[in-house]
């Protein structure tokens, strides 16, 4: 429940943001009919600070509010006041350009006030694009507008003039000249229908009102987008199908593998690194996946793919590649706006219906294509199975080899230990020792020792008296009579051991017959010692023999294992040294392409086979697009079947994000099989969410180091939004950083699982191989963004020789533009044209592009260069933002910086602007500006230094205007900053 509440709060903050966008809509259509006006410019007055409406107008709007309230749609009632009236005529309609708006919707919930309403009590929002276009507000000034202290302070600080009240401001403000029309009067405007956010708002409102959120579970792209942590890519993943273009690069293949296993894949695509090619391969795989599953299982599911972006150029790139490589009028529907639906989508649908009605189903062709496809797919799958089997065998062999090596090492150690034991000090050899003889002698010796009479004491021997001599004679007599004297005992011993003694004499161990008491005792000790030594020797010999046997056994085991190791090594040497998963998409690219072609052919034949069912679905879908309500009800009831059949004929839809709802009206979970969302780092995160609810998988491509979303609010407006929409709903500052459309966390960051902290770009899969710019140019992008890309483009000099050139132009300002730079660029282009470059090329070969970070400078360049060359391509001059996703052979960057009061912060706060600017050039990048001034910035200094290292700093040629030639820093002059109180 807590998670559901968090999701609900996040969705509401996004709806709040859309309301802010609507409130700051730079161009408000007056409405084409009186029945549905968007502007009320009569019966409205401003006196002092008070707004006055006629009672009839108030009642008219109050009734509308009541009607919506009864339908529980009071939030859809949005009325604001703005002044002065500034508008222009386009397509026979008045387009109003408010400078700021005040939301006064709440007054129509109350009663009419004859005294009017004090406008200083209402919250207001500046409309930055109009303040910048009409009154020369710079990008830096726009971000730092003062709004917290109320409307009057905002007007005084913005227009550099004190006003006693709002009426005073209205009387004193300078109104823009024609072709704009102006009137110093207030007006009311409806701000709930802005075209760029209308569909997004309806989608989010519909999602919020759904009784249950089937998508709010782990593993669904929408849920993972909000809360998930991306899983790392897996290597051993096999895919089928490739688009008819170059094979995927290793990093592209890694992204495609990740997308097969995960609901959402974030791909980081630096400039020129093959984002479009990766998306095309992803489309091809989805075609093959459906056809193969249908053939092998009989199950058919929609493979409807949406290719989308907020950037028109991004979706156009995909469409151009499809148109060039798919030789059929079917396959994709492109265009979500009403105009494109009428001009492109409906005619293609009708042509497909005509084809189905007129073409006949060829069952033989169907079987033939089916069998070809199945055979080819099985061949590729068998390659994988064979590799997996061999790889498994190889892994088992490697494991066995490691185990055998360990066993051999253990055996070697054991054998070495035996060798060490045999080399230790040996016991003397007793093999010829007469053990039996000594064992026979020993008991007799011990018995003789036991029989020895006591030894005479020294006192008795030395006795000299008669008694002593008498005692000794008696003892001697007794010993003689009993034969128990030492002599008798030794004599008797000799007779007893004479035979065993004889047995010892011929050996190295002869026994010497003892002749005295002392030698008898020594003989016993010698016999015992020798017998012990003999036993030890015998045991040692037995031990040696056993050790030798064991050593021989271990040696035999070792030799056997060595032979097995040799066999394993020989087998391992025959295994493939290349990793199948590193190369299959390259080695079998031709087969992968053929598989895609066969799959597409098969699905078209399948459409013919199920002709009646598919025709019904296509006609229903056409009815949906032309706003037929019966068709819309049929879609709401049976959308799975309709989208499944539609995708048999048109598996790909191409539309900008703002128009998706026109092609896929309802945010039903699963109505899309996959979404490919390009340039996601240019999109606020809330814009991607409705398509993620619709899809089963998402492939989100972007570059956090290229251009970010344009947030048309001042810093104080953003603080106000954070407090009102996040903190008051119980969300945190961390939630704001993570989920706010106004934070640095874009749709790409959200998909890549970024934390919301500054500098965290998440865990997207980096496309590493670069194929657009020559090395000196793209090295600058790599230098400031630290991509670590692998540059595949060869070195190629430009027509001017160097690939990087900088011209110092001191600067001369007029109406917020640097005229000196424009004059220099005009001369540079004239020089380039003489060298073979052009200002208009359908494929951008040799084409020149001119860009600036600043809108005023870009507009001035556009006006001047088109006046000189009327065939200058319209998409070749503009701001850096207009060139995102584009490329030219030559790019000229006009920095406009010159005045000391100019802030370099706008260009240098992050590397994104200059990364995009430089990487648009394929072979020649030219920097025009005050180089000394640019060196005071961070990334601009690095750019000048990079050009000094890899290119050239050049003097403007003599044929260029004299006042634009390089001068020393000491001679640089500065002009005063223009006031914005005068309209441009």
Automatic annotation (TrEMBL):
Which Gene3D superfamilies does the record cross-reference, listed alphabetically? P-loop containing nucleotide triphosphate hydrolases (3.40.50.300)
SUPFAM superfamilies in alphabetical order: P-loop containing nucleoside triphosphate hydrolases (SSF52540)
Q: Which residues form a coiled coil?
A: 51-78, 377-421, 528-578
DNA2/NAM7 helicase-like C-terminal domain: which residues? 812-930
Extract the ranges annotated as region (Disordered).
Answer: 955-984
| Source species, domain of life | Bacteria
**DNA2/NAM7 helicase helicase domain: from which residue to which, for each copy?**
251-711
Instruction: Return any one Pfam family short name.
Output: AAA_12
- Identify the InterPro entries for this entry: Coronavir_polyprotein_1ab, DNA2/NAM7-like_C, DNA2/NAM7_AAA_11, P-loop_NTPase, SF1_C_Upf1
User: Would I find Hydrolase among this entry's keywords?
Assistant: yes
Q: What Gene Ontology terms describe what this protein does at the molecular function level?
A: 5'-3' DNA helicase activity; ATP binding; hydrolase activity
Query: Keyword Coiled coil: yes or no?
Result: yes
Keyword terms of this UniProt record: ATP-binding, Coiled coil, Helicase, Hydrolase, Nucleotide-binding, Plasmid
Stated family: Belongs to the DNA2/NAM7 helicase family.
The UniProt entry, under PANTHER family, shows: DNA-BINDING PROTEIN SMUBP-2 (PTHR43788:SF8), DNA2/NAM7 HELICASE FAMILY MEMBER (PTHR43788)
Q: What is this protein called?
A: Superfamily I DNA/RNA helicase
The organism's taxonomic lineage, starting at the top: Bacteria, Bacillati, Cyanobacteriota, Cyanophyceae, Oscillatoriophycideae
